DNA sequence: AGCACGCCGACT
DNA sequence: GTCGGCGTGCTC
């Protein structure tokens, strides 16, 4: 310790910086600088300056020569204690460095400095020397509000800005500084209260009471599509706003369409602030800042909105809580629904999980009494319930090479004749799942995986859906060289679209698939267009199942409905049930109009098909939970995977083996399952997934920590990430 | 995550 | 002889 160090006590604080550091770094606080835990600061890090957060707890003992001073404190509301605890909790639970978690909360670099004030003008009351018609209009328009922007006033008065300039010179207006305009208008909790039926009223009252009571709780809001879940939880939102709290509504990214925003707007007189990947950077920063200042009251966002720096969060609603899109499977692996519950628990406020088809783990939590359970019995209008039936494809097959059965084809014809819409759902991208040579029988297979290559005609490629391998569609068989004798086997959405174009050439047909060009933005636009009636036949993969409002959709057909039941995934039945239930729920949402759901299946006797046809979700869940118990699989929790990724398959494989060996040699590491998902390629990196399950003795994180610690340190491009399955948080 | 340092292949 | 590939290691 140097003499100056002894004479002038240097204050040292921990600062969490947004990089994969296991713990906060230590920084010196310059004389006269005020910082406290939560302060957002700028610190030197190597050659650059980064934003970090002053953290809690003791600082690392660090070499005085390394210690560098904080550059500045941003004029920005600090991250509050609950947010800091939340970051630490998520880091611990997901076994990721806290620095990477805090990074998710700091993703709005320009938002740490206050927004600039706007140059505006206000009327002085002085009249100009010479009055003109244009000047009169400007003065009249100006009286509508205390202050204006120069161009805004000109626009409102219907004159050019030079008229306003003239009035400024005449002294009728003076310059004034205006606070930055709000990102969104304030919601009005009493604006467009919906008419609720008795059932919905009871549900809304129960949720509102939970909100009014305050404190942490989790409630499952369960009700079929069209039962008015949204309107019901809007009442809880209104109650939280009434108490002066902020509200977060989480939605799967794809469900954040204009129609949701419109419904919110109709209820609260203003749209919510939107937070998803399509929001422009400037707007993102504005929203981040105003959320931190408590000026934005309601955010509707995708999973990343969970890390927004709310000042006064009082309610989180997780809509479509079963949706797999809530699980982030890159960088920091987390499940937004579960982390929402954790955030509620730390912040001591209620969380509402809404779904027509809850995940099994949420059902189990509700059944065990850990979560409250509010059920909405029926639809708004009972008549709007779709009439569901199974089509036995063994009894009534379509002609060879076709996949839409005559029964469904007839229903489509009738539907579009009436000017209504038909939706065909098939959960398989591309044109055909298998291509073979009619001469020698050669099947096109992925060189790295044991899977067929899927024919994608729109892209002119054969693709492996497992690892991303792709080749141009060949014309000749690579085995026997014969030209033009390759044949596509089985259906994909592209092929169904082709069938529809052949059968209904005059109909407006839209194909929706995640691999079509244009990305999320275009998809949202197309979905809104469909809702506006700009299509007759819609063919789509699972993305059409996700919470859209299609009032004209009176027929839903599921092609190959039992597709998902074949693979060995322990959640196959649950996923298939959820998908089919959601997709058939798209039908019959406009009251009065009769609607149908036709499900093509090769195994109509399967319990999932029976449950779908009967519309009895409860029976399905009870059976599924019992089934999992019988098979020894926990209904949820105590499961995890270790994901090893590397630039080459060999590297990834080698590290996966090392982890396996470490687990085998260390007696304390139990529960490394035999399963190992085949390698997948994601953005050029080869990934291995090892399944891990814990025994009853300790939380699964302990196994994972021990296993990763015992294995050799990753070398080269190798990276290890952990994905912990949903558990109970109470 | 950046960014610099460092050690092996094709070029102004 | 250098420019530059990305493997390795560090950042208070």
UniProtKB/TrEMBL annotation:
NAD listed as a keyword: no
Molecular-function annotations in GO: 3'-5' DNA helicase activity; ATP binding; DNA binding; hydrolase activity; zinc ion binding
GO biological process, one term: double-strand break repair
Enzyme Commission identifier(s): 5.6.2.4
Superkingdom classification of source: Bacteria
GO cellular component: primosome complex
Entry keyword Zinc: yes
Gene3D superfamilies assigned to the protein according to its UniProt record, in alphabetical order: P-loop containing nucleotide triphosphate hydrolases, PriA, 3(prime) DNA-binding domain
InterPro entries: DEAD/DEAH_box_helicase_dom, Helicase_ATP-bd, Helicase_C-like, P-loop_NTPase, PriA, PriA_3primeBD, PriA_3primeBD_sf, PriA_C
Domain Helicase ATP-binding: 210-376
Binding site for Zn(2+) 2: 446, 449, 464, 467
Keywords: ATP-binding, DNA replication, DNA-binding, Helicase, Hydrolase, Isomerase, Metal-binding, Nucleotide-binding, Primosome, Zinc
Top-rank EC class of the record's enzyme: isomerase
Catalytic activity: ATP + H2O = ADP + phosphate + H(+); Couples ATP hydrolysis with the unwinding of duplex DNA by translocating in the 3'-5' direction
Cofactor note: Binds 2 zinc ions per subunit.
Segments crossing the lipid bilayer: none
Pfam families in UniProt: DEAD, PriA_3primeBD, PriA_C, Zn_ribbon_PriA
Cofactors, names only: Zn(2+)
UniProt-annotated binding residues for Zn(2+) 1: 437, 440, 477, 480
Function: Initiates the restart of stalled replication forks, which reloads the replicative helicase on sites other than the origin of replication. Recognizes and binds to abandoned replication forks and remodels them to uncover a helicase loading site. Promotes assembly of the primosome at these replication forks.
Protein family according to the UniProt entry: Belongs to the helicase family. PriA subfamily.
Quaternary structure annotation from Swiss-Prot or TrEMBL: Component of the replication restart primosome.
Record-given protein name: Replication restart protein PriA
Protein encoded by which gene: priA
């Amino acid at each position: 310790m140097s003499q100056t160090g002894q004479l002038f006590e240097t204050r040292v604080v921990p600062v969490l910086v947004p990089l994969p550091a296991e713990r906060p770094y230590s920084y010196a606080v310059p004389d006269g600088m005020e910082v406290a835990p939560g302060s957002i600061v700028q610190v030197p890090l190597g050659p650059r300056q980064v934003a970090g957060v002053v953290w809690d707890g003791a600082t690392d003992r660090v070499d005085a020569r390394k210690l560098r001073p904080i550059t500045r404190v941003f004029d920005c509301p600090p991250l509050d204690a609950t947010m800091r605890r939340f970051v630490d909790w998520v880091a611990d639970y997901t076994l990721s460095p806290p620095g990477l978690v805090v990074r998710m909360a700091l993703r709005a670099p320009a938002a740490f400095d206050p927004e600039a004030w706007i140059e505006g003008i206000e009327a002085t009351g002085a009249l100009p020397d010479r009055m003109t018609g244009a000047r009169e209009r400007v003065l009249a328009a100006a009286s509508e509000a205390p202050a204006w922007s120069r161009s805004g006033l000109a626009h409102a008065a219907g004159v050019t800005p030079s008229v306003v300039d003239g009035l400024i010179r005449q002294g009728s207006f003076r310059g004034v500084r205006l606070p930055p305009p709000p990102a969104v208008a304030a919601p009005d909790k009493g604006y467009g209260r919906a008419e609720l039926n008795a059932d919905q009223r009871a549900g809304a009252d129960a949720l509102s009471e939970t909100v009014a009571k305050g404190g942490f709780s989790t409630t499952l809001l369960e009700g079929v599509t069209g039962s008015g879940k949204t309107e019901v939880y809007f009442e809880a939102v209104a109650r939280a706003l009434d108490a002066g709290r902020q509200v977060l509504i989480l939605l799967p990214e794809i469900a954040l369409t204009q129609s949701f925003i419109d419904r919110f707007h109709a209820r609260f007189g203003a749209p919510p602030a939107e937070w998803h990947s399509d929001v422009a950077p400037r707007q993102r920063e504005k929203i981040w800042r105003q959320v931190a200042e408590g000026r934005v009251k309601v955010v509707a966002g995708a999973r990343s909105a969970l890390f927004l720096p709310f000042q006064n969060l009082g309610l989180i609603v997780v809509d479509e809580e079963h949706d797999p899109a809530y699980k982030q499977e890159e960088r920091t692996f987390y499940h937004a629904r579960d982390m929402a519950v954790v955030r509620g628990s730390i912040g001591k406020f209620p969380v509402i999980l809404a779904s027509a088809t809850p995940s099994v783990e949420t059902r189990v939590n509700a059944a065990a009494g850990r979560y409250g359970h509010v059920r909405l019995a029926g639809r708004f209008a009972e008549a709007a319930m779709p009439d569901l039936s199974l089509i036995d494809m063994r009894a009534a097959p379509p002609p060879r090479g076709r996949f839409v059965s005559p029964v469904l084809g007839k229903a489509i014809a009738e539907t579009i004749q009436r000017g209504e819409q038909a939706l065909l759902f098939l959960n398989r991208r591309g044109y055909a799942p298998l291509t073979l040579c009619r001469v020698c029988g050669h099947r096109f297979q992925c060189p790295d995986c044991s899977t067929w290559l899927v024919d994608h005609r729109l892209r002119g490629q054969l693709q492996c859906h497992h690892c991303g391998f792709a080749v141009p569609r060949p014309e000749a068989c690579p085995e026997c060289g014969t030209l033009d004798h390759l044949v596509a086997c089985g259906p994909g959405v592209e092929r169904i679209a082709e069938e529809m174009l052949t059968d209904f050439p005059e109909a407006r047909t839209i194909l929706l698939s995640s691999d079509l060009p244009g990305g999320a933005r275009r998809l949202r636009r197309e979905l809104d267009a469909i809702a506006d009636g700009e299509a007759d036949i819609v063919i789509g993969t699972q993305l059409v199942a996700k919470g859209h409002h299609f009032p004209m959709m009176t027929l839903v057909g599921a092609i190959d409905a039992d597709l998902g039941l074949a693979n060995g995934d322990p959640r196959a039945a649950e996923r298939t049930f959820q998908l089919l239930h959601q997709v058939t729920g798209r039908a019959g949402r406009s009251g009065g109009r009769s609607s149908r759901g036709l499900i093509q299946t090769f195994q109509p006797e399967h319990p999932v098909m029976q449950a779908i046809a009967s519309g009895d979700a409860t029976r399905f869940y009870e059976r599924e939970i019992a089934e999992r118990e019988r098979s020894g699989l926990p209904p949820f929790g105590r499961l995890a995977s270790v994901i090893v990724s590397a630039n080459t398959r060999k590297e990834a494989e080698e590290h996966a083996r090392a982890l396996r060996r470490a687990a085998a040699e260390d007696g304390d590491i139990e529960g490394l399952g035999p399963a190992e998902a085949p390698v997948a390629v994601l953005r050029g990196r080869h990934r291995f997934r090892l399944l891990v399950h814990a025994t009853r003795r300790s939380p699964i994180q302990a196994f994972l920590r021990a296993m990763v610690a015992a294995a050799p340190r990753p070398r080269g491009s190798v990276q290890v990430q952990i994905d912990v399955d949903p558990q109970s948080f109470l």
